[in-house]
Structures are given as structure tokens and as C-alpha cells.
Amino acid sequence: MRKARAKSRIIDPDPRYGDKVVTKFVNNLMLNGKKNISFRIFYDAMDIIDKRNEEGGLAVFHKALENVTPQVEVKSRRVGGATFQIPQPIRDDRKQSLAMKWLISFSKKRNGKSMATKLADELSAAFKEEGAAYKKKEDTHRMAEANKAFSHFRF
After folding, report:
1. What DSSP string describes 53-113?
2. Where are the domains positioned within the chain?
3. Residues 6+ away with beta carbon under 8 Å from 129
4. Rounded (10°) angle between helices 57-68 and 35-52
5. What CA–CA distance (Å, rounded) separates 48 from 57?
6. DSSP state of 148
7. Kind and range of the H or E element at 20?
């Protein structure tokens, strides 16, 4: 039998914007427990976006996160010796978590001087519904659509 589901932790809002989503993003961005460095990277990226874009950096961040958030995903299920990719809806907290992880991982793979500029570029691209993280969401939805015939195998 599986253990009990993990309890969700209380997350404090970030110091500049007072937004809990920003703190979650910074926690995902953090490496080796260096939270101040990840806050500095995020705030520098927001300043870069503020200079480039007429909308505020926080508004661009939230719209980019919304554009990258997936609605369905495929999970593998073994039925009668064959493995099927079964589309399933995603819980809200997992949707947000996947979107954040995709934005961060594709920011790291981008070309650029610093992580702040890479993150600003990826957030701007996701805001305009382009870029690698947005493409990942589209690919996930396309795969779920292609395997819709197997949705009756859902657990």
C-alpha cells in the first residue's frame, strides 16, 4: 500500500511583489539552497523584461506561465502485454509545477550571457506564445490528442 500523500507546505510571498507564485518559481530555480541568488536572478530577469516590454514584468511572468501550463498529459499504462500512452487531466498544482520546470529547464538551455537574460528571453517568448517551453506544452497536448482513442484504459 502507498504512503499518505505529502502535506502541502505554507509558502511565504516574495519580498518585492508579495506573490506566492513568484516564491514557488524561485524555489524551483534555486540550486544548492542558494535562495538569495535565485531571487537575484529572477528580479534581474523582471528588470530586463520591464525595460523591453510596456507591460510590467510580473504581468509578463504570469501570462507566460499561463501560456506554458499544460491541461492534459499522457501516462504509460500496460494493458495485456502492450504499453499504451493514456491521456489524463492534470491536477492544478502539478500543472503549475510542470510549467515552472519547463520554463526553467529551457531557460538554462538557451544561449545568453547570464541566467537572468536567458530567463527573461524565455519568459518573453512564452508570453508571445513561442519558444521551447510553449512548444513542449503544444507537443504534450498533441500527443494526448493523438492517443485519445486509448482514454478508456484510464485507471
Report:
1. -SS-HHHHHHHHHHHH--SEEEEEEEETTEEEEEEEE--HHHHHHHHHHHHHHHHHHS--S
2. 20-153
3. 67
4. 100
5. 8
6. G
7. helix 20-29
Count CB neighbours of 27 within 10 A: 13
Its pTM surpasses 0.85: yes
Which residues pair with residue 82 across a beta bridge? 79
Expressed in angstroms, the distance from the first to the final Cα of the chain is 16
Residue type, 12: D
pLDDT tens, residue by residue, 80-136 = 888 888 888 898 889 999 999 999 999 999 888 899 999 999 999 999 999 899 999
Amino acid of residue 110: R
Model confidence at 151, pLDDT cuts 50, 70, 90, reads: low
CATH architecture of 20-153: Orthogonal Bundle (1.10)
The secondary structure of residue 151, as a DSSP letter, is: G
Cα separation, 41 vs 50, whole angstroms: 14
Cell readout for 76 is 504509460
Report whether pLDDT(70) > 80: yes
